[in-house]
Amino acid sequence: MIATSIEQIPKIVCFDDSPRGRLLQGAAYLFYKQGYDKTTVRQLGEFIGIQSGSLFHHFKSKDDILATVMEQTIIYNFARLKEAAERSADPEQQLRHLIKAELVSITGDTGAAMAVLVHEWASLSKEKQAYILKMRNEYEQVWLDVIEKLCVQGKVKHDAFIWRRLMGGAISWTVTWYKPEGKISLDELTEMVLEMAVK
User: Which of 40, 46, 67, 71 pairs with 124 at a CA distance of 20 to 30 A?
Assistant: First the structure.
């Protein structure tokens, strides 16, 4: 069931509580729940409790809103990812921390925004895609650096880029089925993904 107002949805931590932040939070939720194309500017305005024309006080276009949702999501989770990688100098431990950090991002406090980043990529204008892609590549490089170290150690036998794509796909899909109150904890899920990733 889709919420009818922003007050009914969980806080998405990569957006602040300013009017602009509330707009991004509402957009991330609606784009995730019903898709970018099906979400109208008028509907977004009603959802967050403002006139639809007021959205353009903060953003030039709906495309600009989508790009900003993605940008802020990457900035927040890139910082989370870097902090996770810096917790250890051991590549296997680093990978464990990266897996956990991304699972937290996808299934927890930035889940809707991360899902938008993954599933609404093609909805961005080409110009915005190039900008977001550059940011995404920096995020992915944190993963690739760790996986390449594991390749050197012989713990990962496959191409680092392809291995990250397989792992990233598995992790990002958890947003569709993982429930924190379910039969497996996030720590247990982290260990399962690590076992699949490392020989």
Answer: 46
Q: For 117-168, how does the pLDDT look when each residue is reduced to its tens digit (9 = 90+)?
A: 988 989 999 989 999 999 999 999 999 999 999 999 999 999 999 999 999 9
Q: Quick one: which of 5, 24, 6 has its CA closest to 14?
A: 24
Asked if residues 128 and 121 have their Cβ atoms less than 8 Å apart, the reply is no
**How far apart are the C-alpha atoms of 2 and 112, rounded to whole Å?**
13
Residue 184 CB neighbour total at 10 angstroms: 12
Q: 121, 162, 117, 130: which is closest to 143 by C-alpha?
A: 162
Point out the residues of the chain with pLDDT beneath 70.
none
Q: How many CA atoms lie within 13 A of 112 on its CB side?
A: 23
| 136 sits in which H/E element | helix 126-152
- Count of residues in the chain: 199
Question: Contact 76/111 with Cβ under 8 angstroms?
Answer: no
- Burial group, residue 18, by CB count within 10 angstroms (0-12, 13-18, 19+): exposed
Q: What does the H/E/C string look like for 44-111? A: HHHHHCCCHHHHHHHCCCHHHHHHHHHHHHHHHHHHHHHHHHCCCCCHHHHHHHHHHHHHHHHHCCCH
